[in-house]
Amino acid sequence: MRPLVCEIRLNYLRENYLYLKKVHGNKLLAVVKANAYGHGAVQCAQALHDIADGFAVAFVQEAIELRENGITKPIVLLEGALETTEYAEIDKYDLWTVVHNQTQLENLLAYNWQKPATVWLKMDSGMHRVGFFPHNFAAAYTALSQSNKVANIVKMTHFACADEDETGMTEMQIEAFDLACEGLDGEESIANSAAMLRFPETHRDWGRAGLALYGIDPMSKFETEYAIKPVMRLSSKIFSERVLQPHEPIGYGASFYTKRSTRVGVVACGYADGYPRCTPSDTPVAINGARSRVIGRVSMDMMTVDLHDNHFKIGDEVELFGDVVNINELASAAGTITYEILCNMKRAKRIYVK
Ligand SMILES: *Cc1c(COP(=O)(O)O)cnc(C)c1O
């Protein structure tokens, strides 16, 4: 069997949830959209079910998959209904839907609900992707609250820069949100992972934890200051090796030349497994727990690493990311973000650790 293994430590997931819930103080949604950021939505939701206040997914099919696998807690659809036909499913499966524009609002009110809906009404407080502008928010709120089709409205917004240093943008968004919500009662939800960790004033009725729930520092730190542990660990093995003389090329494009006599190990993992192809030479890996590095270009199914220490041999374990190599380190070397790498973990064999 190919030795590439994607371990999902569900025990860490639970610990991370409980920690973030303590930080946030109030209720906390576990964001499990995009197959729980590549970790497996059903497995993660089931592992959290007894402790989670609710879950969030992007769209209705993701929510139905959870309902069909025994998830009975609240589920929020972060993108809301994408087609009018989805209101019947939202109604049937008892889902909470975001309403972020006038079309969604009108379609929701036009639908003949069996039971009154719970709506998360989204404000665009500055990210300018979706949501009602602050000056239109009260009107949208009133239209929903005056309808007998709506039981409950949660006011929400989303931050553009909560994971960035000193932009002032988050403070500005909080102020815009609070100002536009004046006089509108009901629950509020504004914090994503970065905001709940860094801005206590974002702790409202519901937090929405994604990245930090999976144990990744949203500030892209290689060593986090928060009590979260990486849930996913990707490891494989060396399945071939050779010694190259100085000034010899390795791999596609001959992008790397040895400087000295070099033992090269070939690892069963490539970009088809979601390991970024643009990862440059010198990016860290850990062989039997000791840090080494990628050399040469990442291929589809394999990659080459420096075995400079003679103790490494065929069959030795290589951690691509997880405990020794933080995934933020890999993402930074590859010029991407951890979210993207996690979501691309679709091929490696899964092992769920309870
Ligand atoms: C994905 C998402 C989140 C979670 O964000 P993280 O940065 O992963 O914590 C929260 N809110 C909304 C609206 C989202 O789409």
From TrEMBL:
Cite the annotated pathway.
Answer: Amino-acid biosynthesis; D-alanine biosynthesis; D-alanine from L-alanine: step 1/1
EC identifiers of the protein: 5.1.1.1
Q: Name one GO molecular function term.
A: pyridoxal phosphate binding
Active site, UniProt feature: 33 (proton acceptor), 252 (proton acceptor)
According to its UniProt entry, one GO biological process term is:
D-alanine biosynthetic process
Chemical reaction(s) catalysed:
L-alanine = D-alanine
Question: Where would I find the Alanine racemase C-terminal domain in this sequence?
Answer: 231-353
Which Pfam families has this protein been placed in? Ala_racemase_C, Ala_racemase_N
Provide the alphabetized UniProt keywords: Isomerase, Pyridoxal phosphate
Q: Which GO terms describe its cellular component?
A: cytosol
Modification N6-(pyridoxal phosphate)lysine, positions: 33
Nucleus among the record's keywords? no
Q: Which cofactor does it need?
A: pyridoxal 5'-phosphate
Which residues make up the binding site for substrate? 129, 300
Q: Is Metal-binding among the key words of this record?
A: no
| Record InterPro entries | Ala_racemase, Ala_racemase/Decarboxylase_C, Ala_racemase_C, Ala_racemase_N, Ala_racemase_pyridoxalP-BS, PLP-binding_barrel
Q: Output the CDD domains linked to this UniProt entry.
A: PLPDE_III_AR_proteobact
Q: Which residues form a coiled coil?
A: none
The entry sums up its family as follows:
Belongs to the alanine racemase family.
- Task of the protein: Catalyzes the interconversion of L-alanine and D-alanine. May also act on other amino acids.
NCBIfam families recorded: alr
| UniProt-recorded name of the protein | Alanine racemase
